Amino acid sequence: MTESAQHATILKVALDVPLDGVFDYRSDVPVQVGQRVVVPFGPRKQVGVVVDIADNSEIAPAKLKSILQHFDHEPVLDSEFFSLLKFCADYYQYPYGQALLSALPARLRQTEPAQARQQFCYWLNEAGQSADIEAIPARQMVQRRIFTALRERGRLSEAELSELSPSWRKGLLALREQGWIDEEQIYAGLSATLHASNVQPELNDEQAHAVQSILQQRERFKPWLLHGITGSGKTEVYIRLLQAVLEGNQDQALVLVPEINLTPQLEARFRTRLPQYPLVTLHSNLGESERLQNWRLAQTGVARIVIGTRLSVFTPLPRLKFMIVDEEHDTSYKQQDSMRYHARDVALVRAQRRNIPIVLGSATPALETWHNAQSGRYGLLSMQQRAVSQSQLPQVNCVDVSRVQMQEGLSPPLIKALKTRLQRGEQSLLFINRRGYAPVLLCNACHWIAPCMRCSSRLVVHLRQGFLRCHHCGHEQKIVRQCPSCGNADLHPTGHGTQRLEETLAKLLPEARILRVDRDSTRRKHALSEMLSAVHAGEVDILVGTQMLAKGHDFPNLTLVGVLDTDSALFSPDFRAAERLFAQLMQVAGRAGRADKPGEVLIQTTFPEHQLFNALRSQEYGTYAAGLLQEREIAQFPPYEFLALIKAEANEYGPVQRFLQFAADTTRAMATDALVYDPIRPQMERLKGMERGQLLFQATTRQALQIVLRQLTPQLRAHPLSNKIRWAVDVDPQEF
Ligand code: ADP
Ligand code: ZN
Ligand code: ZN
């Protein structure tokens, strides 16, 4: 050993590389565990995190490289962060270093020191408060929108303002020229609402019971399922719980939400009702600088409440004492690439390790969660009344589409109901189940349907733009006029996409103001929140949209929900399809009649007697779930058995098949209780020009699956085909 090697410290550094384990480097300066460092790795420089410090290394001292740089002015990562990501990397069979680095904000993965940009927030000063909106010309919609938002919500950050309109800066400038606006520099996320609300509604019995039960056991790990129908006041319960657990201490709470579209309303309510607690949000719509800033505020314990999407479950929170997972059944909690973790499940693990309570809220819990609540592993709190007494549950009715004359996909009862709403000045929502609803190009003579050349899927007609698009790979081509199969020159789009529906409605109800909300119309940043603002402002009569609209948006003037085509999901081979459809319909039904106006839900279907619709009518989640669980038990699906998938794809199927067969054979040679099937092709055999295959594992315990995967994954990584194909392990897959 050389002189200098003896005195240097050995750092165990986690790096963003697809290899197991951590890497040894030496440092002649003191470096702490949890610090970021820059190290040489192959020909490049890489950012890493020091996860441990040792006295010696298995690598010969002469070969040991030194770190290039360390960032000692930055707050260090705590050990909980490491151990949680280590657990997840092991459980989800993903390289630890990659798991760890990808849980950091992007700015911390760069080799530069990380700094956040300065931000401002704005509010109406006295002059602005006493101003009249009529002083703003009616055609200055952006100015009016900003004015109204500031008046209702108090202080708004730049991020919040940009959600109102992309041209908010111009609008705000105009208001400022009137002398109505004051401003202040802020820590990006912390802006609190100026107009705090101290209106505390009196809790009803169900709410009071829920709050009391949870608070009684707040000092230890305990998962709770808060099963409450839409409008039953779950958010109010969250607010009371946070008030109680954050009072008089420095503790922190983490609130997970499925998609960021949900956050503005929840966030605004939290900010007005909990103004004394610094609150930050964490989601992918934030700029990198703001995201880093918010993350730091969480990591250093300044932020007391963190509202975030999936990835924020890993945020370091030194004083975390309470967790909430809102809409816990939502599929967006599952990451679908890289490390395929489920944020709700990770949150449960985190709560257990920290020995703190966790509340899972939903109107339609995941069957796994429901099962745990029924078996007593989770506490079950039920709220079956709407919180606002005059707000009634919507009437749910089915229209048997096989018995009526349809007009371009719309039934006479639905058209009539739309007309009535229009006359009353109320809003309607037409809900389309995305799957099985897209219009395709069909040849009536030979039944040829325009296919995607790169995927096993059909191209979707986008009539207005005049092209066909694949919704799986994004491939686009012009609409062909002549059938390439039989020469028929009279090709027609069939099916009712959102665009065609919009056109049909415009024809049937020319006076209606129609707004289409789907993936196409909301592609632009902030497009969705602008649209939602327009709906709130009463600028829209009929909303046409996909499941994007089903989530917690609260439209008080919406009294009719029409559901257009659900039948394909009733009989889908995907084992979770029925559960999802039920959740979607419950949620979408919850949009109707939120305020004092009774709502109506009209479902068009060929199967009006299906048990799913009966359950929906009676709002009987429990009975319906019991039926589905029975089916799952017979089929040996979760939550009765545990599953894992190996997914693989390549330019041709041969190597995929050989790789998966190797995995299957290797597993069968192990002494294991887990079952492995034969490699198969998934429903979508080709995707983006890649031939796909998968291998299913099944076991009665998580443990048995873990044992198999832990032995298998390293062998797969070492396999000669491993680098020639793309493959991944998906533990607890959502679908297969
Ligand atoms: P959920 O989150 O379950 O959909 P919310 O918490 O949004 O329900 O409550 C629905 C509506 O009822 C909201 O407008 C809320 O302000 C109101 N609300 C909730 N609890 C009460 C209560 N105890 N008394 C009066 N209004 C309430
Ligand atoms: Zn395609
Ligand atoms: Zn043809």
From TrEMBL:
Binds 2 zinc ions per subunit. Pfam families: DEAD, Helicase_C, PriA_3primeBD, PriA_C, Zn_ribbon_PriA. It is an enzyme of class 5 (isomerase). InterPro entries: DEAD/DEAH_box_helicase_dom, Helicase_ATP-bd, Helicase_C-like, P-loop_NTPase, PriA, PriA_3primeBD, PriA_3primeBD_sf, PriA_C. Its cofactor is Zn(2+). One of its GO terms (molecular function) is hydrolase activity. Its EC number is 5.6.2.4. Zn(2+) 1 binds at C443, C446, C483, C486. PROSITE patterns: HELICASE_ATP_BIND_1 (PS51192), HELICASE_CTER (PS51194). Coiled coil: none annotated. Initiates the restart of stalled replication forks, which reloads the replicative helicase on sites other than the origin of replication. Recognizes and binds to abandoned replication forks and remodels them to uncover a helicase loading site. Promotes assembly of the primosome at these replication forks. PANTHER family: PRIMOSOMAL PROTEIN N. HAMAP family: PriA. Belongs to the helicase family. PriA subfamily. NCBIfam families: priA (TIGR00595), PRK05580.1-4 (NF004067). This is Replication restart protein PriA. It comes from Methylobacillus methanolivorans.
